[in-house]
Amino acid sequence: LAALLDASPLNVGFECEVVGFGTLETATSGDLSFFGDRRYVDAATRSHALLITTSELARLLDVRPLLIVERTDLAVFRLLSSYRGLLESADEPRGAATVDPSASLGTSVRLGASAYVGARARIGDRVVLGPGAVIERDVEIGADSVIGANVVIGARCQLGERVIVQPGTVIGSDGFGYLSEGTTHHKIPHFGIVVVEDEVEIGANCCVDRATLGETRIGRGTKIDNLVQIAHNVQIGDHSLLAAQTGISGSTRLGRFNVAGGQSGFAGHLELDDGVIVGARAGVSKNLKRGIYAGFPIAPLPRFRLQTALIAMLPKLHQRIRALERGLAKESE
User: Fold this and answer.
1) Residue 146's closest CA among 168, 123, 125, 130?
2) CA 202, CA 120: separation in Å to the nearest integer?
C-alpha cells in the first residue's frame, strides 16, 4: 500500500490484513479510511481504521498506525482506482451474451449476461459490456472502455478509449425533429451519428441524440452527470463538466472547459466560448463569451447578484412608495 500510494508508514510495526474501506465512523479494524481535514480530527481519533493522512494532520492524532502522503485526495483516488480495477478483473458469470459473427472483439473483452453486439461492430481490447448492454451494428468502442448495464449504443456511433458509460444511458437515439404541415408533424429522419472522444464519462440515464446529418460530438475528457439530455448535432468541447438534469438543445456548440450547473438549459443554435461557467437552473438563450453567468434571463454573475438583491428589496420599496403616495395625497387635499 505504501508503494502504491507513495506513502510513508508511521507507527506500523506489525503485520495486518486490509480487507476493505470505510468512512471514519463506519470503518472497523482491517479497513482503510482517510483523514484530510482538521474538522474531522475527533472522528479520526475515534476511528478503528488504518488511516491515510498528511504529515501536518498526523500531528493532531494520538500514536496510531498511519500512512503519510502529500495529498490525501490524490492518494484515495489512486487507492480506489486500483481497487476498482481488481474488482473488475474478477471472474463473473457471462450468461448468454449474443455476438454477431461479423463483429470484431479485442483481447480480454468481458461480456455481461444478455449483452448484444451487432453486425460489424468493433470492440477494443479490455472493454467491459455490462448485463443487457446493446451495441448495434457498425459501432466502434475503443480500448479499456466500460459500458454499463442496459446501455444502448445506436448504429454506427463511435466511442473512444477509456470511455465510461453508466447504466441506462442511450447514445444514438433519434433527435427531436419534426416538420409541421397543417395538423401533421412529419418525423425528420436522423442519419448522423454520435462521436464520444477519449476519456469521457457519461452518467446514468442520459440521452445523447444522433445528428440529423453529420455528428453529435462530446469532446475528450468531458464528464457528464446523470439525467442529462444532449440533442442532435450538439458539439461539446474538451474537458467540460455538465451537472445533472442539464438540457442542451439542437446544434448548440459549447467550447472547451465549459461548466453547466444542475438543471441548466440551453436554447438551440447557440455558440459558447471556451471557459464559460453557467450556474444551476440558469437559462441560456444567447451566445456567451468567457465568464461566469447565472439566472434566467442569463446574466453575468455580478449583475445577477445585484438583480437578486434588488428583487429582495422590492417589498420595502413598495411600502415606501405607498407611504409617499399617501403623504402626497394628504398634502393635495
Assistant:
1) 130
2) 24
Cis-peptide into 297, omega within 30 deg: yes
Of 62 and 133, the structure prediction assigns the larger pLDDT to 133
In the chain, % of residues over pLDDT 70: 95
Find the distance separating the first CA and the last CA of the chain, reported in whole Å: 88
pLDDT, tens digit, 9 for 90 and up, residues 199-241: 999 999 999 999 999 999 999 999 999 999 999 999 999 999 9
DSSP category for residue 38:
G
Rounded to an integer, what distance in angstroms lies between the CA atom of residue 202 and that of residue 226? 7
Tens of pLDDT along 16-50? 778 888 899 998 888 889 999 999 999 999 888 88
Mean per-residue pLDDT over the chain, rounded: 92
- Alpha-carbon span 234 to 231, nearest angstrom: 6
DSSP 39: G
Residue 270: which of 245, 296, 294, 249 has the closest Cα? Answer: 249
Cα radius of gyration (the chain): 27
Cβ atoms 257, 243 nearer than 8 A: no
CA distance 315 to 303: 20
**Cell digits for 197?**
472522444
Placement of cell 455476438 in the chain: 99
Length of the chain: 333
Distance CA 79, CA 4 (A): 8
- Whether 232 is a known active-site residue: answer yes
* Banded pLDDT at 85 (limits 50, 70, 90): low
User: Nearest-CA neighbor of 278 among 208, 262, 227?
Assistant: 262
Of the candidates 48, 185, 186, 232, the residue annotated as catalytic is 232
Burial 11-26 (b: 16+ CB within 10 A, else e): eeeeeeeeeebeebee
